[in-house]
Amino acid sequence: MLLEELEELEELKLTCSKDLPDTVRLNGISFSRDNFIVMAGPCAVESYEVTYNIARNLRRFGVKIFRAGAYKPRTSPYSFQGLKEEGLEILKEIKKKSGLHIITEVMEISDIEKVCEAADILQIGSRNMQNFPLLREVGRLNFPVLLKRGAGSTIMELLGACEYIVKEGNEKVILCERGIRTFENLTRNTLDISAIPLLKSMTRLPVVVDPSHACGRSHLVPSLSLAAIAAGSDGLLIEVHSEPSGARSDPNQSLNLCDFEKLMDKLKILAKSLGKKI
Ligand code: PEP
Ligand code: MN
Predict the structure, then answer these.
(1) Which among 116, 139, 174, 244 is most buried, taking Cβ atoms within 10 Å?
(2) Mutation test of ligand 1: which of 74, 123, 149 has the most ligand atoms closer than 8 Å to its C-beta?
């Protein structure tokens, strides 16, 4: 670890940098340095039929954690904001029917309880990375939390945000690099590959990558995913849709099922050669 980083961590008194367990466990699944966990699904929960069809195909390809947002933090208030409670009910039904675990976003303190009833992992989105009251509140739970890096946040700011959660007692935090804003505008964001080894050298927590929001273009997603596992990522969060052009949210970055299956095959080979179980 670089000396300045060490000094800065000391100054911020971040416990997330040293004393935490290196594994986040859910029922039968562990995020750890020995495993590679692929979480996949549409950006948003859509109708039961569309969403369940995606989920059952993903399970066939070996996915164990299904992603889909019932509450969507959209840039424009006029864009689809998610199915909210109805979306949570759909997720519960999918979980029951498919046996998949669920990761879904929580945006407000008042929704935490009901989101926890549908989810196995709470996602804190990039826009809420520094919503400190929300971080404190999920910190009081004994529940896995995936914390996304803000598009304009430094690694130290991500670790500071993480500390708000662990300080309250919840040590089940998974960190997620999802691209940061740079001057490049051919991609939605720029995937900060160096964040992976850096975070892993500064904390024992699992680190995963969201290549979909990082680039915003589906044809780049497989390359970024392979780069992420090669750089030491412990998992991926990928947007997949049965009919990307018809997706209600983030159509351009959603992989179709066929391309996702091809990517999974490559990830399985890489994971094996890197000594990670997928
Ligand atoms: C998402 O995962 O759909 C999402 C909105 O991600 P982010 O917070 O990284 O933009
Ligand atoms: Mn999305």
Answers:
(1) 174
(2) 123
